[in-house]
Each structure stands twice: as C-alpha cells, then as structure tokens.
Design goal:
The chain is an alpha+beta fold and 137 residues long. The chain is built from two helices and eleven strands.
C-alpha cells in the first residue's frame, strides 16, 4: 500500500496510507491529508489512482505543487518522489516498488536531524494491528 511521509517544517514527521482512488491534500478540514500552513490552498492537490499508477494533480493552487523540485500541474509518481506543497515536503513511498532498506532509510532523513524510524515503524504496525482487531470485532 502506498504511503506518504509528511515532513512539515517545525513539526514532527507523520505518515498516512494512501487509500482509495483519490487522496485530497489541502489546508481545509475534510481533506485526506490536512496541512496546517498559510502557503497551502484549501484544496491544494490530489493524488489519483487510475488502476495502473498514482498521479499528483495540482487543483489550481496559488503556490503550486512540485515533484522533485519541478513545478507540475499533473505528474505520475514513482517510489521515492518528493512532493512539495507550500512549506511541507511529502515523500511518496509505494510498497510494490520497494527500495532496498538502506535507500529507504535515507529517504526519510531530515537535514540536520535523524528521524526516529524504529518508533515510526512500530507505531504504524501497532495502528495496523489495532485496525485489524477493530475490524474483526
């Protein structure tokens, strides 16, 4: 399952799993991914699954959407791509295109600080187990 690693400036790292055909990103509550920044539009971008691949689409935002440093309106995503929305960086990781472990670890390293990957992975596994248990109940 694809996931997004969110690296907002001045805040902690978090991740979300990309579920369904459309993931909305923006400042407004109700988006799949809410980014609390004045540089992010209310509905800034979407990540769309067309059955073959994921695509990020800018929805006419004021400050633009960037993939790997290049401004885009629509861009197919590959494993490891860095999406920049406002002042937030979002790493796109796609499980079926898994990177070697040493490369995956480098993808979530923040300049000047090292992410606590073990805690993040443990928390994600716990959430997944809790969700599975809740679904069975």
């Amino acid at each position: 399952m694809p996931r997004l690693i969110i690296l907002p400036k001045g805040q902690g790292i978090r991740q979300i799993n990309v579920k369904g055909a459309l993931t909305t990103i923006g400042r407004k509550e109700g988006n799949s991914l809410v980014l609390d920044s004045d540089r992010v539009s209310r509905t800034h971008a979407v990540i769309d699954w067309d059955g073959d691949h994921y695509t990020v689409i800018d929805t006419g935002s004021r400050n633009g959407t960037f993939v790997n440093g290049k401004q885009v309106r629509r861009q197919a995503l590959r494993n490891g791509d860095m999406i920049t929305i406002g002042d937030c960086e979002i790493r796109f990781l796609y499980e079926t295109q898994a990177l070697p472990e040493d490369q995956a670890l480098r993808l979530v390293t923040i300049p000047g600080a090292l992410a606590d990957l073990d805690a993040m992975v443990a928390a994600a596994r716990k959430r997944a187990k809790d969700q599975e248990a809740a679904a069975r109940a």
